[in-house]
Amino acid sequence: MNFYQHSGKVGYSPIFLLAAGIPLMVVLSCIYAYITDYNPIAGYLTFLILAGYALANGYLISTLARYGKCRSKTLLIAAGVVGGLISVYFSWLFFIYVLSHRAGYDDVGILDILVNPSEMWEAIKSINESGWFTIKGSTPSGIVLWIFWGIEALSIVVGAVFMTAFSIDDEMFCEKCNAWCNVAETKYLKTPEKFTNSKARNINPTMLADLETGDLAARPIIKSELLKCGSCINYSGWRYKLISSEADKKGDEKDKLESIPGIVMALG
After folding, report:
1. 154 with 87: CB under 8 angstroms?
2. Confidence at residue 43, expressed as pLDDT on a 0 to 100 scale
3. Cα–Cα–Cα angle for 33, 117, 77, nearest 5°?
4. Do the bridges between strand 221-228 and strand 182-190 make them parallel or antiparallel, or are there none, so unpaired?
5. Do the Cβ atoms of 75 and 65 come closer than 8 Å?
6. Coil, strand or helix: which one is 4?
């Protein structure tokens, strides 16, 4: 049995990412800047907003890359890095714009900041010297604020890369028809005893083809999906996911879904 491997071709994804990705990331940056400017709330909510922004950028990049038929993991990672940096830059641009207008500097325009990165940097340093929000009577500034900002920037870039790097790992593409394959059949298989306590990453998918159909209510159980090209009758492959159970914070059992690495090519 052979494993499916992406060809590494980029398709039309560079065009999609440049034409639609950058404008949409600018819009997300603007929304994020307004939220952080008007609601500088410390605590879990701040991190949730930051995480949401980072993952939204990653989802946007990976979705556009998929529509552009990108089969290159290298490009996806690069797009995540570049997209993350663009998001950091424009979130700062809009942040300074909004903060300036709130302070009464209505003559400061978006283009003024955009075409003067050196002045943008001076504004950032000026904000850092005095800080701009208060937590429990204290106003973070200097090195403390630099650390906060560094964590924020790193989170945005890492979040975008995380979302894009693995976005096509469980996908299959038909090079002949230039199209992504879709799920044509789903089965639930009885987990072999030797894999009962195994992590999904340690299961060899080539050993799962002849398993018996299992009880859907049983845990663990293996979900088997046949990916098939809509045009090529014989071009298909099997991907597998391990469904196990784990306890949530309240102690209740819930399903845990993990992808078993590798798509096994089906025989025509």
Report:
1. no
2. 55
3. 65
4. antiparallel
5. yes
6. coil
